[in-house]
Amino acid sequence: xxxxxxxxxxxxxxxxxxxxxxxxxxxxxxxxxxxxxxxxxxxxxxxxxxxxxxxxxxxxxxxxxxxxxxxxxxxxxxxxxxxxxxxxxxxxxxxxxxxxxxxxxxxxxxxxxxxxxxxxxxxxxxxxxxxxxxxxxxxxxxxxxxxxxxxxxxxxxxxxxxxxxxxxxxxxxxxxxxxxxxxxxxxxxxxxxxxxxxxxxxxxxxxxxxxxxxxxxxxxxxxxxxxxxxxxxxxxxxxxxxxxxxxxxxxxxxxxxxxxxxxxxxxxxxxxxxxxxxxxxxxxxxxxxxxxxxxxxxxxxxxxxxxxxxxxxxxxxxxxxxxxxxxxxxxxxxxxxxxxxxxxxxxxxxxxxxxxxxxxxxxxxxxxxxxxxxxxxxxxxxxxxxxxxxxxxxxxxxxxxxxxxxxxxxxxxxxxxxxxxxxxxxxxxxxx
Length: 432
What we know:
By secondary structure, the chain is an alpha/beta fold. It folds into 2 domains: 2-100, no CATH class; 114-424, pyruvate-formate lyase- activating enzyme (Alpha-Beta Horseshoe), CATH 3.80.30.30. Helices cover 43% and strands 15% of the residues. Helix 7 (178-184) packs parallel to helix 8. The radius of gyration is 24 Å and the shape is elongated. The N and C termini lie far apart (88 Å). This is Spore photoproduct lyase. Keywords: Lyase.
Protein backbone atom coordinates (compact mmCIF):
# COMPACT_ATOMS: atom_id res chain seq x y z
CA UNK A 1 0.00 0.00 0.00
CA UNK A 2 2.81 2.40 0.89
CA UNK A 3 4.35 1.88 -2.50
CA UNK A 4 1.07 2.80 -4.22
CA UNK A 5 0.81 5.94 -2.11
CA UNK A 6 4.36 6.83 -3.08
CA UNK A 7 3.58 6.53 -6.79
CA UNK A 8 0.42 8.56 -6.29
CA UNK A 9 2.48 11.27 -4.62
CA UNK A 10 4.92 11.23 -7.50
CA UNK A 11 2.09 11.54 -9.99
CA UNK A 12 0.56 14.46 -8.10
CA UNK A 13 3.93 16.21 -8.10
CA UNK A 14 4.43 15.58 -11.82
CA UNK A 15 0.98 16.98 -12.59
CA UNK A 16 1.85 20.26 -10.88
CA UNK A 17 5.15 20.64 -12.75
CA UNK A 18 3.87 19.90 -16.26
CA UNK A 19 1.08 20.95 -18.62
CA UNK A 20 -1.07 18.06 -17.42
CA UNK A 21 -3.85 20.39 -16.17
CA UNK A 22 -4.26 21.86 -19.65
CA UNK A 23 -5.00 18.53 -21.32
CA UNK A 24 -8.44 17.18 -22.21
CA UNK A 25 -10.04 15.02 -19.52
CA UNK A 26 -9.81 11.82 -21.59
CA UNK A 27 -6.08 12.41 -22.08
CA UNK A 28 -5.56 13.02 -18.37
CA UNK A 29 -7.22 9.74 -17.46
CA UNK A 30 -5.22 7.85 -20.07
CA UNK A 31 -1.90 9.28 -18.87
CA UNK A 32 -2.76 8.45 -15.27
CA UNK A 33 -3.46 4.83 -16.23
CA UNK A 34 -0.28 4.71 -18.28
CA UNK A 35 1.74 6.15 -15.40
CA UNK A 36 0.62 3.47 -12.97
CA UNK A 37 1.37 0.79 -15.57
CA UNK A 38 4.91 1.92 -16.42
CA UNK A 39 5.97 4.11 -13.46
CA UNK A 40 7.47 6.91 -15.55
CA UNK A 41 10.21 9.23 -14.37
CA UNK A 42 9.49 12.97 -14.26
CA UNK A 43 11.28 13.59 -17.58
CA UNK A 44 9.33 10.78 -19.23
CA UNK A 45 6.01 12.09 -17.92
CA UNK A 46 6.98 15.60 -19.06
CA UNK A 47 7.67 14.28 -22.55
CA UNK A 48 4.28 12.57 -22.65
CA UNK A 49 2.34 15.64 -21.51
CA UNK A 50 4.23 17.88 -23.94
CA UNK A 51 3.51 15.47 -26.78
CA UNK A 52 -0.17 15.32 -25.83
CA UNK A 53 -0.27 19.12 -25.93
CA UNK A 54 1.54 19.15 -29.28
CA UNK A 55 -0.93 16.70 -30.80
CA UNK A 56 -3.83 18.92 -29.70
CA UNK A 57 -2.23 21.99 -31.30
CA UNK A 58 -1.37 20.13 -34.52
CA UNK A 59 -4.93 18.84 -34.93
CA UNK A 60 -3.47 15.34 -34.81
CA UNK A 61 -5.21 12.28 -33.43
CA UNK A 62 -5.17 12.28 -29.63
CA UNK A 63 -2.05 10.99 -27.92
CA UNK A 64 -4.07 8.23 -26.26
CA UNK A 65 -5.40 6.96 -29.59
CA UNK A 66 -1.97 7.24 -31.21
CA UNK A 67 -0.28 5.29 -28.41
CA UNK A 68 -2.96 2.59 -28.59
CA UNK A 69 -2.51 2.27 -32.36
CA UNK A 70 1.20 2.95 -32.89
CA UNK A 71 3.03 2.10 -29.66
CA UNK A 72 1.36 -0.53 -27.49
CA UNK A 73 0.95 -3.20 -30.22
CA UNK A 74 4.73 -3.22 -30.80
CA UNK A 75 5.95 -3.48 -27.21
CA UNK A 76 6.40 -7.24 -27.08
CA UNK A 77 9.02 -7.24 -29.86
CA UNK A 78 10.72 -4.00 -28.74
CA UNK A 79 14.25 -4.01 -27.27
CA UNK A 80 14.58 -3.08 -23.62
CA UNK A 81 15.06 -4.66 -20.22
CA UNK A 82 11.86 -3.37 -18.66
CA UNK A 83 8.35 -2.61 -19.94
CA UNK A 84 9.10 1.10 -19.48
CA UNK A 85 12.24 0.90 -21.63
CA UNK A 86 10.33 -1.02 -24.29
CA UNK A 87 7.56 1.59 -24.22
CA UNK A 88 9.91 4.52 -24.82
CA UNK A 89 11.93 2.67 -27.44
CA UNK A 90 8.79 2.35 -29.54
CA UNK A 91 7.32 5.71 -28.52
CA UNK A 92 10.43 7.70 -29.48
CA UNK A 93 10.87 5.82 -32.75
CA UNK A 94 7.28 6.46 -33.83
CA UNK A 95 7.41 10.10 -32.73
CA UNK A 96 10.64 10.62 -34.66
CA UNK A 97 8.98 9.21 -37.79
CA UNK A 98 6.11 11.65 -37.38
CA UNK A 99 8.23 14.74 -36.70
CA UNK A 100 10.83 14.08 -39.38
CA UNK A 101 8.25 14.09 -42.18
CA UNK A 102 7.47 17.47 -43.75
CA UNK A 103 4.25 18.69 -42.17
CA UNK A 104 1.15 19.50 -44.22
CA UNK A 105 -1.17 22.47 -43.84
CA UNK A 106 -3.86 21.04 -46.12
CA UNK A 107 -7.14 21.07 -44.24
CA UNK A 108 -5.53 22.77 -41.25
CA UNK A 109 -6.43 26.19 -39.89
CA UNK A 110 -4.07 27.80 -37.43
CA UNK A 111 -5.97 29.63 -34.71
CA UNK A 112 -5.40 33.28 -33.88
CA UNK A 113 -3.35 33.30 -30.65
CA UNK A 114 -5.42 35.78 -28.67
CA UNK A 115 -3.09 35.77 -25.70
CA UNK A 116 -0.27 37.14 -27.86
CA UNK A 117 -2.10 40.20 -29.16
CA UNK A 118 -0.99 43.26 -27.10
CA UNK A 119 -3.73 45.33 -25.51
CA UNK A 120 -2.06 48.51 -24.25
CA UNK A 121 0.20 51.09 -25.93
CA UNK A 122 2.46 53.09 -23.62
CA UNK A 123 4.91 55.96 -24.13
CA UNK A 124 7.63 55.61 -21.53
CA UNK A 125 10.88 57.30 -20.59
CA UNK A 126 13.24 54.49 -19.65
CA UNK A 127 16.82 54.04 -18.54
CA UNK A 128 17.30 51.25 -21.06
CA UNK A 129 20.16 51.38 -23.53
CA UNK A 130 18.43 51.11 -26.91
CA UNK A 131 21.64 50.51 -28.91
CA UNK A 132 23.34 47.13 -28.88
CA UNK A 133 24.34 44.00 -30.75
CA UNK A 134 22.06 41.57 -32.51
CA UNK A 135 21.07 39.11 -29.75
CA UNK A 136 22.29 36.13 -31.78
CA UNK A 137 25.68 37.59 -32.78
CA UNK A 138 28.29 34.91 -32.10
CA UNK A 139 31.63 33.48 -33.14
CA UNK A 140 30.02 30.02 -33.19
CA UNK A 141 28.14 30.85 -36.40
CA UNK A 142 28.83 33.07 -39.40
CA UNK A 143 27.21 36.38 -38.40
CA UNK A 144 26.98 39.81 -40.05
CA UNK A 145 27.75 41.79 -36.85
CA UNK A 146 24.41 43.58 -37.00
CA UNK A 147 23.79 46.28 -34.40
CA UNK A 148 20.28 47.05 -33.23
CA UNK A 149 18.16 49.98 -32.09
CA UNK A 150 15.15 49.04 -29.96
CA UNK A 151 12.70 51.91 -30.41
CA UNK A 152 9.68 49.81 -29.39
CA UNK A 153 9.17 46.77 -27.17
CA UNK A 154 6.57 44.18 -28.20
CA UNK A 155 4.95 43.49 -31.54
CA UNK A 156 1.27 43.59 -32.50
CA UNK A 157 1.65 40.51 -34.69
CA UNK A 158 1.10 36.94 -33.54
CA UNK A 159 3.76 34.83 -35.25
CA UNK A 160 3.75 31.43 -33.59
CA UNK A 161 7.54 31.04 -33.62
CA UNK A 162 8.50 34.54 -32.43
CA UNK A 163 10.90 35.07 -29.54
CA UNK A 164 9.44 38.49 -28.67
CA UNK A 165 6.46 36.84 -26.94
CA UNK A 166 8.73 35.47 -24.21
CA UNK A 167 10.66 38.67 -23.48
CA UNK A 168 7.93 41.29 -23.15
CA UNK A 169 4.44 41.68 -21.68
CA UNK A 170 1.27 42.42 -23.61
CA UNK A 171 2.06 46.14 -23.31
CA UNK A 172 3.64 47.88 -26.28
CA UNK A 173 6.24 50.31 -24.91
CA UNK A 174 7.48 53.19 -27.07
CA UNK A 175 10.64 55.09 -26.15
CA UNK A 176 9.28 58.54 -25.28
CA UNK A 177 12.73 60.12 -25.52
CA UNK A 178 13.87 58.25 -28.64
CA UNK A 179 15.39 61.31 -30.32
CA UNK A 180 17.50 62.10 -27.26
CA UNK A 181 18.75 58.53 -27.04
CA UNK A 182 19.54 58.40 -30.76
CA UNK A 183 21.53 61.63 -30.46
CA UNK A 184 23.67 60.05 -27.75
CA UNK A 185 24.67 56.99 -29.78
CA UNK A 186 28.35 57.29 -30.65
CA UNK A 187 29.07 56.30 -34.24
CA UNK A 188 32.55 56.23 -35.76
CA UNK A 189 32.09 58.35 -38.93
CA UNK A 190 34.98 56.58 -40.65
CA UNK A 191 33.45 53.12 -40.40
CA UNK A 192 30.50 51.61 -42.28
CA UNK A 193 27.89 50.09 -39.99
CA UNK A 194 24.69 48.03 -40.37
CA UNK A 195 21.98 48.79 -37.80
CA UNK A 196 18.58 47.07 -37.66
CA UNK A 197 15.40 48.17 -35.91
CA UNK A 198 13.24 45.05 -36.12
CA UNK A 199 14.51 42.94 -33.22
CA UNK A 200 12.12 43.93 -30.42
CA UNK A 201 9.14 44.80 -32.64
CA UNK A 202 8.14 45.08 -36.28
CA UNK A 203 9.75 48.23 -37.69
CA UNK A 204 6.77 49.59 -39.64
CA UNK A 205 3.60 48.23 -38.02
CA UNK A 206 3.34 51.33 -35.80
CA UNK A 207 3.97 53.82 -38.58
CA UNK A 208 5.28 57.18 -37.35
CA UNK A 209 3.68 56.95 -33.92
CA UNK A 210 5.47 59.21 -31.45
CA UNK A 211 7.51 60.59 -34.42
CA UNK A 212 9.50 57.36 -34.33
CA UNK A 213 10.22 57.23 -38.07
CA UNK A 214 11.00 60.97 -38.13
CA UNK A 215 13.64 60.38 -35.47
CA UNK A 216 15.09 57.30 -37.15
CA UNK A 217 15.33 59.04 -40.52
CA UNK A 218 17.07 62.02 -38.88
CA UNK A 219 19.51 59.56 -37.32
CA UNK A 220 20.21 58.06 -40.75
CA UNK A 221 20.80 61.52 -42.26
CA UNK A 222 23.17 62.40 -39.43
CA UNK A 223 25.17 59.19 -40.02
CA UNK A 224 25.47 58.56 -43.78
CA UNK A 225 27.94 55.74 -43.07
CA UNK A 226 25.18 53.75 -41.34
CA UNK A 227 22.98 51.35 -43.28
CA UNK A 228 19.74 51.64 -41.31
CA UNK A 229 17.41 48.69 -41.89
CA UNK A 230 13.68 48.73 -41.14
CA UNK A 231 12.38 45.16 -41.21
CA UNK A 232 8.68 44.35 -41.46
CA UNK A 233 5.87 41.92 -42.20
CA UNK A 234 3.47 44.78 -42.82
CA UNK A 235 2.33 46.73 -45.87
CA UNK A 236 2.38 50.00 -43.93
CA UNK A 237 4.66 52.05 -46.20
CA UNK A 238 2.74 55.33 -46.45
CA UNK A 239 5.49 57.17 -44.59
CA UNK A 240 8.02 56.07 -47.21
CA UNK A 241 5.76 57.27 -50.01
CA UNK A 242 5.00 60.66 -48.45
CA UNK A 243 8.42 61.68 -47.12
CA UNK A 244 12.00 62.05 -48.31
CA UNK A 245 13.88 58.87 -47.45
CA UNK A 246 17.62 59.02 -46.72
CA UNK A 247 19.55 56.91 -49.26
CA UNK A 248 21.12 54.84 -46.47
CA UNK A 249 17.74 53.56 -45.25
CA UNK A 250 16.75 50.11 -46.52
CA UNK A 251 13.28 48.67 -46.05
CA UNK A 252 13.18 44.88 -45.84
CA UNK A 253 10.41 42.29 -45.77
CA UNK A 254 10.24 38.88 -44.12
CA UNK A 255 8.56 36.55 -46.60
CA UNK A 256 6.87 33.17 -46.43
CA UNK A 257 4.37 31.29 -48.60
CA UNK A 258 0.80 32.42 -48.02
CA UNK A 259 -0.21 29.14 -46.38
CA UNK A 260 2.48 29.74 -43.73
CA UNK A 261 1.34 33.34 -43.26
CA UNK A 262 -2.27 32.16 -42.85
CA UNK A 263 -1.42 29.55 -40.24
CA UNK A 264 1.68 30.79 -38.42
CA UNK A 265 2.02 34.58 -38.96
CA UNK A 266 -1.23 35.95 -37.56
CA UNK A 267 -2.30 39.58 -38.09
CA UNK A 268 0.49 40.21 -40.64
CA UNK A 269 0.08 41.44 -44.22
CA UNK A 270 -0.46 38.85 -46.94
CA UNK A 271 2.44 37.83 -49.16
CA UNK A 272 0.86 39.72 -52.08
CA UNK A 273 0.49 42.90 -50.03
CA UNK A 274 4.03 42.67 -48.67
CA UNK A 275 5.43 42.40 -52.19
CA UNK A 276 3.17 45.20 -53.46
CA UNK A 277 4.36 47.43 -50.62
CA UNK A 278 7.98 46.58 -51.37
CA UNK A 279 7.44 47.44 -55.05
CA UNK A 280 5.92 50.82 -54.16
CA UNK A 281 8.92 51.61 -51.99
CA UNK A 282 11.42 50.41 -54.61
CA UNK A 283 9.68 52.43 -57.33
CA UNK A 284 10.31 55.54 -55.22
CA UNK A 285 14.03 54.83 -55.36
CA UNK A 286 14.29 53.41 -51.85
CA UNK A 287 16.45 50.30 -51.55
CA UNK A 288 14.74 47.11 -50.38
CA UNK A 289 15.70 43.65 -49.18
CA UNK A 290 14.06 40.32 -48.44
CA UNK A 291 14.43 37.80 -45.63
CA UNK A 292 13.28 34.21 -46.03
CA UNK A 293 13.57 33.68 -42.33
CA UNK A 294 12.29 31.46 -40.94
CA UNK A 295 11.89 29.07 -43.83
CA UNK A 296 9.35 26.42 -42.82
CA UNK A 297 9.82 22.77 -43.77
CA UNK A 298 6.44 21.51 -45.00
CA UNK A 299 5.22 19.30 -47.82
CA UNK A 300 4.96 22.08 -50.43
CA UNK A 301 8.08 24.06 -49.53
CA UNK A 302 10.14 22.98 -52.56
CA UNK A 303 7.61 24.56 -54.94
CA UNK A 304 6.33 27.45 -52.83
CA UNK A 305 9.61 29.16 -51.92
CA UNK A 306 11.12 29.14 -55.45
CA UNK A 307 7.80 30.53 -56.70
CA UNK A 308 8.32 33.56 -54.46
CA UNK A 309 11.86 33.90 -55.80
CA UNK A 310 10.47 34.04 -59.33
CA UNK A 311 7.93 36.68 -58.29
CA UNK A 312 10.69 38.85 -56.89
CA UNK A 313 12.94 38.50 -59.94
CA UNK A 314 10.01 39.24 -62.27
CA UNK A 315 8.92 42.33 -60.32
CA UNK A 316 12.08 44.01 -59.07
CA UNK A 317 15.20 45.49 -60.62
CA UNK A 318 18.14 43.78 -58.88
CA UNK A 319 19.77 47.19 -58.48
CA UNK A 320 16.96 48.11 -56.08
CA UNK A 321 17.53 45.03 -53.89
CA UNK A 322 20.45 45.26 -51.46
CA UNK A 323 20.37 41.75 -50.05
CA UNK A 324 18.37 38.55 -49.65
CA UNK A 325 18.84 36.34 -46.60
CA UNK A 326 17.70 32.88 -45.58
CA UNK A 327 17.33 31.26 -42.20
CA UNK A 328 15.47 28.44 -40.50
CA UNK A 329 13.10 28.03 -37.59
CA UNK A 330 15.18 28.50 -34.44
CA UNK A 331 13.60 28.58 -31.00
CA UNK A 332 14.73 28.90 -27.43
CA UNK A 333 13.16 26.69 -24.77
CA UNK A 334 11.03 29.50 -23.25
CA UNK A 335 9.39 30.08 -26.66
CA UNK A 336 8.55 26.38 -27.00
CA UNK A 337 7.16 26.40 -23.46
CA UNK A 338 5.03 29.48 -24.20
CA UNK A 339 3.63 27.95 -27.39
CA UNK A 340 2.55 24.84 -25.50
CA UNK A 341 1.17 26.81 -22.59
CA UNK A 342 -1.00 28.99 -24.82
CA UNK A 343 -2.11 25.96 -26.80
CA UNK A 344 -3.38 27.69 -29.94
CA UNK A 345 -3.70 25.73 -33.16
CA UNK A 346 -0.28 25.62 -34.81
CA UNK A 347 1.97 23.08 -36.48
CA UNK A 348 5.18 25.01 -35.93
CA UNK A 349 6.45 22.41 -33.41
CA UNK A 350 5.67 19.51 -35.73
CA UNK A 351 9.32 19.23 -36.64
CA UNK A 352 12.42 17.37 -35.60
CA UNK A 353 14.19 19.61 -33.09
CA UNK A 354 17.97 19.45 -32.70
CA UNK A 355 20.27 21.83 -30.78
CA UNK A 356 22.24 24.46 -32.69
CA UNK A 357 25.67 25.86 -31.62
CA UNK A 358 23.91 28.29 -29.23
CA UNK A 359 21.78 25.65 -27.52
CA UNK A 360 18.63 26.72 -29.35
CA UNK A 361 16.37 24.28 -31.19
CA UNK A 362 16.20 24.07 -34.95
CA UNK A 363 16.02 21.74 -37.97
CA UNK A 364 18.68 19.08 -38.60
CA UNK A 365 21.50 20.27 -40.87
CA UNK A 366 20.44 18.14 -43.84
CA UNK A 367 17.00 19.79 -43.96
CA UNK A 368 18.49 23.27 -43.73
CA UNK A 369 21.00 22.57 -46.48
CA UNK A 370 18.32 21.16 -48.78
CA UNK A 371 16.09 24.21 -48.27
CA UNK A 372 18.83 26.84 -48.53
CA UNK A 373 20.44 25.23 -51.56
CA UNK A 374 17.08 25.00 -53.35
CA UNK A 375 16.26 28.63 -52.64
CA UNK A 376 19.73 29.89 -53.58
CA UNK A 377 19.50 28.05 -56.91
CA UNK A 378 16.09 29.63 -57.51
CA UNK A 379 17.84 33.02 -57.47
CA UNK A 380 20.64 31.88 -59.81
CA UNK A 381 20.14 34.78 -62.23
CA UNK A 382 20.78 37.24 -59.40
CA UNK A 383 23.86 35.67 -57.83
CA UNK A 384 26.15 38.33 -59.30
CA UNK A 385 23.67 41.17 -58.81
CA UNK A 386 22.39 40.86 -55.23
CA UNK A 387 24.13 39.98 -51.94
CA UNK A 388 22.91 36.66 -50.50
CA UNK A 389 23.57 35.39 -47.01
CA UNK A 390 22.49 32.95 -44.31
CA UNK A 391 21.45 34.08 -40.85
CA UNK A 392 22.79 32.33 -37.74
CA UNK A 393 24.23 29.32 -39.56
CA UNK A 394 27.46 27.35 -39.23
CA UNK A 395 30.25 27.61 -41.79
CA UNK A 396 29.63 24.03 -42.93
CA UNK A 397 26.02 24.85 -43.82
CA UNK A 398 27.17 27.89 -45.83
CA UNK A 399 29.60 25.75 -47.81
CA UNK A 400 27.08 23.02 -48.55
CA UNK A 401 24.26 25.46 -49.37
CA UNK A 402 25.99 28.34 -51.17
CA UNK A 403 29.33 26.79 -52.11
CA UNK A 404 31.27 29.48 -50.24
CA UNK A 405 31.69 30.90 -46.75
CA UNK A 406 33.28 33.97 -45.22
CA UNK A 407 36.35 33.30 -43.10
CA UNK A 408 35.07 35.29 -40.14
CA UNK A 409 32.29 37.64 -39.07
CA UNK A 410 34.30 40.75 -39.88
CA UNK A 411 34.82 39.63 -43.49
CA UNK A 412 31.08 38.89 -43.78
CA UNK A 413 30.16 42.32 -42.37
CA UNK A 414 32.58 44.09 -44.69
CA UNK A 415 31.28 42.25 -47.77
CA UNK A 416 27.62 42.99 -46.97
CA UNK A 417 28.28 46.67 -46.35
CA UNK A 418 30.52 47.07 -49.40
CA UNK A 419 27.89 45.47 -51.64
CA UNK A 420 25.12 47.63 -50.13
CA UNK A 421 26.95 50.95 -50.33
CA UNK A 422 28.02 50.25 -53.91
CA UNK A 423 24.30 50.50 -54.72
CA UNK A 424 23.48 53.29 -52.29
CA UNK A 425 26.57 55.39 -52.87
CA UNK A 426 29.43 55.59 -50.41
CA UNK A 427 29.43 58.53 -47.97
CA UNK A 428 31.88 61.36 -48.56
CA UNK A 429 35.30 60.59 -47.07
CA UNK A 430 36.04 62.17 -43.70
CA UNK A 431 38.41 65.13 -43.98
CA UNK A 432 40.45 66.65 -41.18
